[in-house]
Automatic annotation (TrEMBL):
Name under which the protein is recorded: GDSL-like Lipase/Acylhydrolase
Lineage of the organism: Eukaryota, Fungi, Dikarya, Ascomycota, Pezizomycotina
Molecular function GO terms recorded: hydrolase activity
Domain of life: Eukaryota
Stored Pfam families: Lipase_GDSL
Comp. bias (Low complexity): 100-123
Coiled coil location: none
Length: 400
């Protein structure tokens, strides 16, 4: 049985070693997991690693646990193997929970050099007090009384090796907010884009919202308040999610009556990206979805090339990630041919907007492009290998 102190919150964001000397002159070691439900992972003398069985104390008797002070986790010997007892405060009262642990294995002998490699500030950080640990472990259950305190030399090497995987497990889920015109927007009269199809591939707790609006440009999307709505969503979610904002315009900006020059279009896109970065989120500039119209020779029209080039230029200028939806959707449409391409039309004569099936197909293309540029997000997307294979086989065989 070993002792370790943990701060139990909802989302783990940092993992910190805490070492100190006790009144008896012994070394006491623990860790602080700020913002996390994954507590005490691979951090005990005599064990290589272990993890709490799910659910990891994320629900109390009255709903979601609100821990206001430091909790203490104690490894005990249960009838069926090692178990973890977590003691914390809920509604002002001490609560004890017990669960089995998995993945337990003996650890190899440890070297004290690991503790010497830690930053001085980390080595000197205060661990939970001896009084607190005694209060926590002195209960009617005699198995909860700790034996010898941890040796920092035996404890720290296992901890250091476990920390990266704990950080990976604790990564915040993404939230995607889609800003754009009707080729991003939900399917409706006069509009319909890839947005909802893209969002359909997200795995909970990741989520997204389609803020695409029919007929909008980089100018009136802002002036009419839609951009402010997107920014409010970003501000409300950055604490608990890694927020991404896709930005795709161009179909309406290019219309002569809008009086928006290519220079202004590029500047506007860059400004939108910079505003999202300033809020602590990640912008993704998206070159505009191709139109599915063909000339007499059966070649898909390329009438958004200027907007594509300026979107890429804005991304380069502001050091922003971009995905080339225009080029890849044009290649795909060319490869599948006019008849198949028009089967994705919202209405028969509309070669711009997508029906529900088209939203899924081009939404999958966007998802694949996003994942190519943002490694590590794969766990938050439901794969559709059949559809992805069909899309990329077509793109790679395209003649444009």
């Amino acid at each position: 049985m070993e002792w370790c102190g943990v701060q139990y919150l909802q989302q783990m964001t940092t993992l910190e070693i805490r070492v100190r000397s006790t009144k008896r002159g012994e070394k006491e070691a623990g860790f602080l997991a700020q913002g996390g439900a994954a507590v005490c992972s691979g951090l005990h003398q005599g064990f290589e690693s272990f993890s709490l069985a799910a659910p990891a104390f994320d629900q109390g008797r009255r709903g979601k646990v609100q821990v206001v002070n430091e909790a203490v986790g104690i490894l005990v010997k249960g009838k069926g193997g090692p178990e973890m007892v977590l003691v914390y405060e809920e509604d002002g009262r001490p609560v004890r929970r017990r669960t089995s642990v998995s993945g337990v294995a003996p650890t190899s002998s440890a070297s004290s050099s690991a503790s010497q490699s830690l930053p001085r500030s980390t080595q000197q950080a205060a661990a939970p007090s001896e009084e607190d640990s005694n209060q926590t472990t002195t209960t009617e259950d005699s198995t909860m009384k700790p034996q010898a305190l941890l040796s920092a030399a035996a404890f720290l090497p296992a901890f250091v090796s476990a920390a990266p995987s704990a950080d990976k497990r604790a990564a915040k889920p993404p939230a995607f907010f889609l800003a754009g015109d009707s080729t991003t927007a939900v399917q409706s009269t006069g509009g319909g884009g890839w947005g909802n199809g893209f969002l359909s591939f997200l795995k909970k707790p990741a989520f997204g919202t389609n803020y695409g609006r029919n007929g909008r440009t980089t100018v009136d999307y802002v002036s009419q308040g839609h951009w402010a709505t997107v920014k409010d969503a970003v501000k409300s979610n950055t604490a608990n999610f890694d927020v991404y904002v896709t930005i795709q315009f161009g179909h309406n900006d290019q219309k002569p009556e809008k009086n928006i020059s290519l220079d202004q279009y590029q500047t506007n896109l860059g400004n939108l990206a910079k505003e999202i970065k300033a809020l602590g989120a990640t912008p993704i500039l998206v070159t505009p979805l191709t139109r599915r119209s063909f000339n007499s020779a059966g070649v898909v029209t390329n009438n958004l090339s200027n907007e594509r080039e300026r979107t890429i230029a804005a991304a380069t200028e502001t050091k922003t990630t971009y995905i080339d939806l225009n080029l890849n959707s044009r290649k795909y449409v060319q490869a599948i041919g006019e008849t198949k391409a028009h089967s994705y039309n919202l209405v028969e004569s509309d070669n711009t907007h997508l029906n529900a099936e088209g939203s899924v197909v081009f939404g999958r293309l966007v998802a694949d492009l996003v994942l190519q540029k943002n490694k590590g997000l794969e766990q938050w997307f439901t794969p559709n290998n059949t559809l992805s294979d069909e899309i990329w086989k077509a793109i790679n065989s395209s003649t444009v």
